[in-house]
Amino acid sequence: MSSGFFLGLVFGAIAAVLVLGVVMRQRFTRLQTRIQVLEDDIARERDAVKRAEDKSAAANALIEKLPTPLFLLNDELTVLSNNAAAIDLAGRNLAGNGIAFGFRQPGFLQTIEAAMETGTGQRMQLELPVPIERSFLVQVEPILSSAGSDRGNQIPTLLVMMLDVTQVMRTEQFRVDFVANVSHELRTPLASLIGFIETLLGPAKDDQEAQQRFLAIMQEQADRMYRLIADLLSLSQIELDEHSLPDEPVDLRSIAGEVEALLTMKAVERDMRLVLEIEEGLPMVRGDRDQLTQVLQNLMDNAVKYGNPGTEVRVTMKRDETRVAVAISDQGAGIAREHLPRLTERFYRVDAARSRAMGGTGLGLAIVKHILNRHRGKLTIQSEVGEGSTFRISLPASN
Predict the structure, then answer these.
(1) What is the pLDDT of residues 124-172, one digit of tens each?
(2) Cβ burial, residue 70 (10 Å; 0-12/13-18/19+)
(3) Which end of the chain is more exposed for a tag (fewer CB within 10 A), N or C?
(4) Integer Cα distance of 223 and 200 in angstroms
């Protein structure tokens, strides 16, 4: 073989290598371009995921702050998540448990099951009796169809929303009760006033002595109507606020001293004595000072009203583990056992004539009961005919 042939082979090989290098470089460039495109796509997807996560976190934070209790359930009615309002309502975090662990009302559970079975939204009104009676409008909305899903999955299937309508319901109930009670309780004094006015305008218009006597009675009846309306309005406001727990530190010792000073003259007029026995270092309670003053004033005033002349009214206050116990005792005629369960009912009176003669409206103990309900307090009444009565209240201590 000639040298020219070998040179041709060498140059051919070199040319092939050069061509191959160019081709490989082009392919490498295209590969780099594709990799860059992929990296750009991944970066965009990562940004999209980050934005979605940020939006989800913001939505979760918003849901957590909503005052409306919300529950997310799967198709086994297990709670997947619940916001702070829901945890507060149920008294514990129900996540991971069935909704029935927190709410056992049959109608509530049936409504949720109906939404699951039909795939349509359901609505009901739920009454929760403890710790304070509250009313909720429950809305159950399907999120995803459970058909074909694995049992026990972690996919939200139902959203349960519970709107607190307690105040709305109480406002309506107050309107109904107010009309019924006022029409009943005001009928007698209004009839008396109308009768006296007719007499003063007619037969007694020139009788000065009769006028003075009738005007005094009319003043008494008008005062009674004023007290009645004031107590009804006070009771209605207390009931509207009953579901909200007050948190102001209140010193019961100072309240008792103020009420004692207020009632001392009344006690002296009846030849009675107020005695306060208050434990040293008595803790404060959390509450509404004005309302707790109303409680002590009502109970101590009743003790002075119904205690026998020449006796004493004893008020004791002491710590009872995590609570403050207060007892107001009188030495009056006492109350028969069959009346005790009904004493806190509106307008219930053991002796209606005597109560009215003493200026009572029949609402005092109802007011006391509702104030104590708002404060998570308790009222117990002990009485024996001929031996007097003791009204005991118990309130959570603040420390």
Answers:
(1) 999 888 667 788 999 999 986 444 444 445 567 888 999 988 878 777 7
(2) middle
(3) N
(4) 19
- Please measure the distance between the N-terminal and C-terminal CA atoms of the chain and give it in whole angstroms: 113
Residue with tokens 């918003």: 62
CB 258 within 8 A of CB 293: yes
Helix (H, G, I), strand (E, B) or coil at 341: helix
Q: How far is CA 209 from CA 189, 193, 206, 301, in A?
A: 22, 17, 9, 34
Look up residue 216 and give its amino acid: A
Q: How far apart are CA 307 and CA 366, in angstroms?
A: 20
* Residues 49-105: tens digit of each pLDDT: 566 555 555 545 566 777 889 998 888 899 988 888 888 888 889 988 999 988 989
225 phi/psi in degrees, rounded to 5: -65, -40
DSSP label at 389?
E
Residues in the chain: 399
Cα–Cα distance for residue pair 72/200, rounded to 1 Å: 71
Distances (CA, A) of 38 to 31, 112, 370: 10, 47, 69
Share of the chain above pLDDT 90, in %: 27
What is the sign, positive or negative, of the torsion defined by CA atoms of 353, 359, 361, 366? negative
Number of C-beta neighbours around residue 236 at 10 A? 18
Non-local (6+) Cβ contacts of 90 within 8 A are: 69, 82, 102, 103
CA 367, CA 231: separation in Å to the nearest integer? 8
Cβ atoms of residues 308 and 378 within 8 Å = no
259 Cβ partners below 8 Å, 6+ apart? 293, 296, 297, 300
By the 10 Å C-beta count (0-12 exposed, 13-18 middle, 19+ buried), 105 is classed as middle
Which runs of consecutive H residues, i.e. helices, occur in the chain?
3-65, 84-90, 106-118, 166-185, 187-201, 208-240, 252-269, 289-306, 352-357, 364-374
